[in-house]
Amino acid sequence: xxxxxxxxxxxxxxxxxxxxxxxxxxxxxxxxxxxxxxxxxxxxxxxxxxxxxxxxxxxxxxxxxxxxxxxxxxxxxxxxxxxxxxxxxxxxxxxxxxxxxxxxxxxxxxxxxxxxxxxxxxxxxxxxxxxxxxxxxxxxxxxxxxxxxxxxxxxxxxxxxxxxxxxxx
Length: 169
Fold this sequence. Notes:
Blueprint: H1 2-9, E1 13-17, E2 25-29, H2 31-36, E3 42-44, E4 62-64, H3 66-69, E5 77-80, E6 96-100, E7 110-115, E8 120-128, E9 132-136, E10 145-148, E11 152-163
Antiparallel strand pairs: 1-2, 3-4, 5-6, 6-11, 7-8, 7-11, 8-9, 9-10
């Protein structure tokens, strides 16, 4: 028990329950403990300037849990981005867009949408207007896509996050 108490003081474990004779005790690794044994989480080692040179420290300031790297819910899905029409929002070809179905798409939000009889799709800013839906790219080289109300099929998912791999092949 002395070792467990020391590990608790140092932030490696949580001790739940116990105390009275015969009561079950649960010992749970903290994020710092899981990092120490190599079983989860990534260390955030501070900040790095993207401007001029500045002093940095390579000492963990927090542990980023796997589930916090990209927050998602049951039902969410990823689509791989093809094309450069959304680069103004930092969405690049080869990125994976995290989309949430079955939620309201606010005016101007980014969403994966369907239109026309063939359910053609695209990822754009959505503006629902009187008799049409305007789909706006964030790359100024692309014109707005105007979809009439009778051709509009709806939102497949509202944009909620982005996954980018360093190796884009």
